[in-house]
Design goal:
Length: 163
């Protein structure tokens, strides 16, 4: 079994554009604890370098106007990237919901077909029971008629001779 069946999700991912894949990668990266930790670490290093180490020759002295500019640009880009990713997630959710709906319709049709077959089988069983009951009733009636007492008061079967 070297060839695996492709799922809907795998086929969908294969059809993504480069920009859509990039948005997904960035969304997954920015929405993680490693990103948060590294971002905080970067801001601490920036502040330490510009305040303590390079105090006389700092490229962005306190109040860190350049850092604020970068943070503002990052926030703007993050908002756009997150909106792109959210829009894609909505499209994926809608496609999956449609797939679920189609599957539900197919399942309902199959269940209806099986229910119809089951009802037919039950009807056949009822008819067979009625036929078996009628046959048993006729056989019991024939046996009962054969054992009726004779008019002379002797209890005999049809095969018994009087006497």
């Amino acid at each position: 079994m070297s060839e695996q069946r492709k799922t809907w999700h795998a086929a969908h991912k294969a059809g993504l554009s480069r920009g859509q894949r990039a948005a997904d990668i960035m969304r997954n990266g920015m929405g993680s604890w490693p990103f948060v930790g590294s971002f905080i670490g970067f801001m601490i290093v920036w502040a330490l370098l510009n305040s303590a180490v390079l105090a006389a020759h700092a490229w962005d002295p306190y109040p860190y106007i350049l850092l604020n500019l970068f943070l503002s640009m990052l926030a703007g880009l993050q908002g756009a990237i997150l909106l792109i990713a959210a829009k894609r997630q909505d499209a994926i959710a809608a496609a999956m919901a449609q797939h679920d709906y189609d599957t539900d319709l197919q399942s309902k049709a199959e269940i209806d077909r099986l229910t119809t077959i089951n009802n037919q089988q039950l009807e056949i069983l009822r008819e067979l029971r009625q036929l078996a009951g009628a046959r048993d009733g006729a056989r019991d009636g024939a046996r009962d008629g054969a054992r009726d007492p004779a008019p002379d008061g002797n209890d005999r079967t049809d095969g018994d001779a009087p006497g």
